Amino acid sequence: MPHYILFHKPYGVLTQFTDAEGRPTLGDYIDLPGVYAAGRLDKNSEGLLLLTDDGDVLHRVTHPRWKLPKTYLVQVEGTPDEAALQKLREGVMVKGKKTAPAEVQLLSEPPDLPPREVRQYHPTPWLRITIREGRKRQVRRMTAAVGLPTLRLVRVAIGPLTLGDLSPGAWRELTDEEREVLLRAIGLDPRRPPTPKTPFRPRRRGRRKPRR
Hints:
The protein has helices at about 55-60, 80-90, 140-145, 175-185, and strands at about 5-10, 35, 45-50, 70-75, 95, 95-100, 105, 125-130, 150-160, 160, 170-175.
């Protein structure tokens, strides 16, 4: 049977299973062979990761074609005005390319999250941001582009899956109902046989040989 795992990645943990420098990795928390993270969180980000050995799910959760929303709670430095929030909603230039429209909400109260020390500036409000892309460090670069550097970033949802009360460093298997809802959200029949291999393959380089 395939595995579908929700993991609460703590701050400072790399989204990989080994590290030559001895830094904390997923392998320090999860001892299941053959599972891969469907998408990444950088070392300084926290929150929800989905891991699986189902190749189709790995591909569709991460590929922008399926537009699976990912939601983040983002603590920023500065005072977000409506103009900055609207820029984030409409898309901002990141690395020479405009981001897709995002859902952005300024929270009236800090979210209920496990405590973690961050640099203390005032004010340090929280935003709730939902995107449907997966560019490297995208949310951090988006907030920086409107003058609101990110101080803390926690992913709380991947499509229909939510972080809930999962503690940092803890993981669990999806329930049958969660698995079915996820598969339907990415256009897969829950009754289909899973693909028991990772879709990550090295890209072929160089020009193709002409057909004869």
